[in-house]
């Protein structure tokens, strides 16, 4: 067998593996989707089928996300999440400052009231 | 069958009867003891499962204080009368419990909360106010009880509870609960964690009107779980909400690492637009990433009825069964799994109660976090069943547990370890 034929046979083997894996994957997803509640617990094969169905659902979600980013939403998901977290932390700090400010105002109000002899707690 | 075989039914009945007496006694003794009972109810690591679940149902309703007392707290915290702080303030309380009392008010000016949309002026608010002197009063009661507790602690039967340390812990927990800023922060965090979930609602906190003893938050109308039938008649999909509630809990435990650990029916209600509203974030459970993997394995093994694997991964969470008791405990847990989880619908509470009972009888220490998680899981099941009686809460765990287990299985070192065998198997398949 020539080198070229061997190489082509190698590629054909690779394609065959790929095709077999793809068919196996599709069949596992189909079996997983057809599972009833509780079927996934019936053994390792059922577990893999169920897992395949869950992964297939996540793959569809990923496709939608990628399509959205291709449509102009260029924000990288990881960066977006980190920015959200940062925004929350800043918001949380603002909340604490606002609460502290209210407490300080109350102390100031009491100090003013006691030095002027007025009734505490009235604006 | 299982119960009588292992002599557990009698012990269970005895512990249940004691728990009921204890609950009635605490309710009669008043606020300090109700609080103590509530704190005990989140410690299955220390007290029997029967006590924990019975005390979790303590009714925390006490006679309301006169509005003048509540107004004095608000004025002392902000230096202004409620009329100055709010567009209006209702002297009639909407709820009254041992630690705090809640009144309605109306927001005077627009406020941008930490999480969520702007709250416009005119928004209805719930104003939670710590009852004046409550912390001192409860701590005073506990101080009075201290000599009795120290004397009790010398008895062998209760020595393992370390009662004096427990009393100290309760005091710290009480101080934290009396500082409403802690609850407000936890509410904001929960709202942020579930910001993308359209079915989750957390009242927005108004921070300029929140201090140590006052918490102002959006007032949310809705159905209590006791009135859920009315909600269903109005078109609310009870099953979908129950499934989603369980999903929120599992996501908290297995993905976010933070979960509402006190989700009893009074802390949840359903809004007219079909959302689940969460209240009272006094107790938040936490799970580290490594624990989440083990929790997924334990949940998975429990659902599959694999007692050996459940106990093996429980050891990673700190639940260590001594070697000399391992075989006996494994047999008991397997039998319990078959009895409570083998049939449909699964009885998660029955399993949890039996499991904690087995550990208690075998004198196996339950780690604090492990116990809290079991208690929270059972409470969530109770809430979900109040919404939809036929729900199987373990179903909600499946996608999260499966994902985590798969993540562990697909670790590069594990794949490298298994790859040669997998390739050989694939080639055999192709050749055949």
Quick structural overview:
Chain A has 123 residues and is an all-alpha fold. Chain A contains three helices and no strands.
Report on the structure:
The complex is a heterodimer of chains A (123) and B (432). Chain A has 123 residues and is mostly helical. Helix content of chain A is 80%, strand content 0%. Chain A contains three helices and no strands. In chain A, helix 1 (3-33) packs across helix 2. Chain A is elongated. The N and C termini of chain A lie far apart (99 Å). In chain A, 10% of the residues are buried. Chain B has three domains: 1-60; 63-96 and 99-220, no CATH class; 223-414, no CATH class. Helices cover 59% and strands 10% of the residues of chain B. In chain B, strand 1 (88-96) and strand 2 form a beta hairpin. In chain B, helix 12 packs parallel to helix 18 (393-409).
Question: How do the helices and strands line up, and which of them pair or pack?
Answer:
The complex is a heterodimer of chains A (123) and B (432).
Chain A: H1 3-33, H2 44-70, H3 77-116
Chain B: H1 2-5, H2 8-29, H3 31-40, H4 49-55, H5 67-78, H6 82-85, E1 88-96, E2 100-106, E3 124-130, H7 134-152, H8 156-159, H9 163-178, H10 180-193, E4 200-201, E5 214-218, E6 223-224, H11 228-233, H12 238-256, E7 258-260, E8 268-270, E9 276-278, E10 284-286, H13 289-304, H14 307-316, H15 323-341, H16 348-361, H17 368-387, H18 393-409, H19 412-431
Parallel strand pairs in B: 4-9
Antiparallel strand pairs in B: 1-2, 2-3, 3-5, 6-8, 7-10, 8-9
Helix pairs in contact in B: 2-3, 2-4, 3-7, 7-9, 12-17, 12-18, 13-14, 13-18, 15-16, 16-17
């Amino acid at each position: 067998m020539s080198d070229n034929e061997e190489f082509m046979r190698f590629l054909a083997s690779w394609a065959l593996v790929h095709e077999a894996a793809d068919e196996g994957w599709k069949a596992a997803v189909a079996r997983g989707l057809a599972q009833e509640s509780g079927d996934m617990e019936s053994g390792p094969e059922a577990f893999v089928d169920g897992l395949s169905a869950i992964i297939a659902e996540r793959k569809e979600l990923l496709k939608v996300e990628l399509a959205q980013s291709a449509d102009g939403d260029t924000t990288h998901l990881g960066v977006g999440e980190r920015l959200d977290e940062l925004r929350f932390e800043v918001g949380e700090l603002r909340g604490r400052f606002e609460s502290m400010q209210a407490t300080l105002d109350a102390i100031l109000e009491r100090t003013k009231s006691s030095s002027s002899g007025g009734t505490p707690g009235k604006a | 069958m299982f119960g009588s075989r292992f002599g557990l039914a009698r012990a269970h009945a005895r512990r249940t009867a004691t728990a009921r007496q204890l609950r009635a006694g605490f309710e009669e003794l008043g606020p300090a003891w109700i609080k103590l009972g509530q704190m005990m109810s989140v410690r299955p690591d220390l007290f029997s499962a029967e006590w924990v679940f019975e005390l979790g149902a303590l009714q925390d309703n006490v006679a309301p204080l006169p509005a003048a007392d509540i107004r004095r707290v608000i004025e002392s915290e902000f230096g202004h009368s409620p009329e100055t702080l709010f567009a209006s303030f209702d002297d009639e309380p909407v709820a009254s419990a041992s630690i705090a009392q809640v009144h309605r008010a109306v927001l005077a000016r627009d406020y941008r909360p930490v999480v969520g949309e702007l709250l416009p002026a005119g928004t209805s608010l719930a104003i939670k106010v710590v009852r004046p002197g409550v912390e001192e009063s409860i701590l005073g009661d506990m101080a009075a009880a201290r000599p009795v507790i120290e004397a009790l602690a010398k008895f062998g039967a209760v020595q393992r509870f370390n009662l004096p340390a427990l009393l100290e812990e309760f005091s710290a927990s009480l101080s934290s609960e009396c500082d409403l800023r802690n609850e407000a922060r936890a509410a904001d965090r929960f709202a942020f964690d579930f910001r993308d979930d359209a079915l989750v609602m957390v009242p927005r906190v108004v921070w300029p009107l929140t201090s140590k003893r006052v918490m102002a938050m959006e007032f949310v109308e809705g159905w209590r779980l006791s009135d859920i039938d009315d909600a269903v008649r109005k078109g609310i999909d009870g099953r979908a909400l129950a499934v989603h509630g369980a999903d929120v809990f599992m996501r908290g435990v297995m993905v976010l690492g933070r979960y509402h650990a006190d989700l009893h029916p009074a802390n949840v209600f359903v809004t007219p637009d079909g959302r689940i509203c969460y209240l009272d974030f006094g107790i938040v459970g936490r799970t580290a990433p490594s624990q989440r993997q083990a929790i997924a394995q334990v949940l998975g093994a429990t659902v599959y009825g694999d007692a050996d694997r459940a106990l093996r991964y429980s050891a990673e969470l700190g639940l260590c069964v001594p070697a000399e008791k391992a075989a006996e405990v494994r047999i008991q847990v397997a039998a319990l799994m078959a009895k409570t989880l083998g049939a449909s619908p699964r009885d998660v509470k029955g399993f949890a109660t039996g499991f904690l009972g087995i550990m208690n009888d075998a004198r196996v220490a339950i780690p604090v976090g492990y116990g809290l998680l079991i208690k929270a899981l059972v409470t969530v099941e109770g809430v979900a069943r109040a919404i939809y009686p036929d729900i199987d809460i373990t179903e909600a765990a499946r996608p999260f547990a499966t994902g985590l287990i798969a993540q562990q299985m697909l670790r590069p070192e594990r794949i490298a370890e298994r790859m040669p065998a997998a390739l050989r198997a694939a080639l055999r398949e192709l050749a055949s």
